[in-house]
């Protein structure tokens, strides 16, 4: 392993430990070694902001568990320790990070920003766990939503805590099908497994739900390599599209919507991730009533528990640029702590079997793991962008002055979809 990689990994780990330190009671921290969680994510490169957002979310969840005394085990409580490893957005780097994390003693890996990377990690972990039972690893996935990961390529060692792409498309379609003025849509996405699945499912559901809607554009672009989306915006304008459906995330979404705004596009955007990471500010007033986003939770879910949850996060991370909180990542860590306590050990197989039965609630949001395919089942919400202060928009996004009003709430029972997984268990 190159020495500069080792140096970067150690530097990242020291930074994570320094941030976690205030949440570790000294006596407990010294009584038993921590349970190491290895976050493998882009901490540099074009999607570094997404990796940092994930780290903040998971760190906050780990701090909460540690603040209440850690994970209770027969031999005594143990703290959680979050270490992060920079994949640089590359599969090979992610696999190198996986090996490094295992060498450091981590047996729980977390990743999500890229379904292609998730697929590579699943393959590597499957092979490792069969070859080396003493070093078996669990993979907890918070955002890699290609449906195949819990269908054809499902694994006993992999658990997904986000709704997969087909579930999210279905939620968006419940809003789109009600917009009878929409007659022409443009499909655009990142050219890898996830982006391809979003467009494929969108075509399928449009044909069934809105056969009157014409698809006037259908294309994929390189992921993380397009710096100027003006040519794509020009094609959207020339097509006469009244709406755009995209699964783009990170800078690929922000740059796309910014280019569309500058080109004069005044149609709707139906998105997976249009509610943060610079997108609302990039769109501005042009997005009011036009940018739709689906999520497991939004800050403007109007309950006292939800509001308190969001205010607590903003107290912990007050900078406007850090304002991106994911409920599912909090539920992931809660489910893991619950599973370890139920297993009564950190044995990988025992924890996995307990995690198959996870049922957790936080701030009024409940989710449970489906054992058949390890797909987490939880409610979904759809929001539309509006100016802060408008009815239902108490909170804005990243200090932009724009937030998302919840217009559709979908219970877990309705968000659930069948699976083709044939789980092979040890």
What does this structure look like?
The chain is an alpha/beta fold. The protein has two domains: 3-163 and 311-377, Rossmann fold, CATH 3.40.50; 166-295 and 381-415, Rossmann fold (3-Layer(aba) Sandwich), CATH 3.40.50. The chain is 41% helix and 19% strand. The chain has a seven-stranded mixed beta sheet, with helices on both faces. It has a five-stranded parallel beta sheet with strand order 2-1-3-4-5, sandwiched between helices. The chain has a three-stranded antiparallel beta sheet with strand order 11-12-13. A hairpin with a 4-residue loop joins strand 12 and strand 13. Helix 3 (48-67) crosses helix 12 (327-343). This is Branched-chain amino acid ABC transporter substrate-binding protein.
Main sheet properties: 7 strands, mixed
* Strand order, largest beta sheet: 7-6-8-9-10-14-15
Shape: globular
CATH superfamily of the largest domain: Response regulator
Low-confidence stretches: 1-29
Query: How many strand segments?
Result: 15
SSE order: HHEHEHEHEEHEHEHEHEHEHHHEEEEEH
- Rg over CA atoms, rounded to whole Å, is 21 Å
Organism: Variovorax ginsengisoli
Family: Belongs to the leucine-binding protein family.
InterPro entries: BCAA_transport, Leu-bd, Peripla_BP_I, TAT_signal
Keywords: Signal
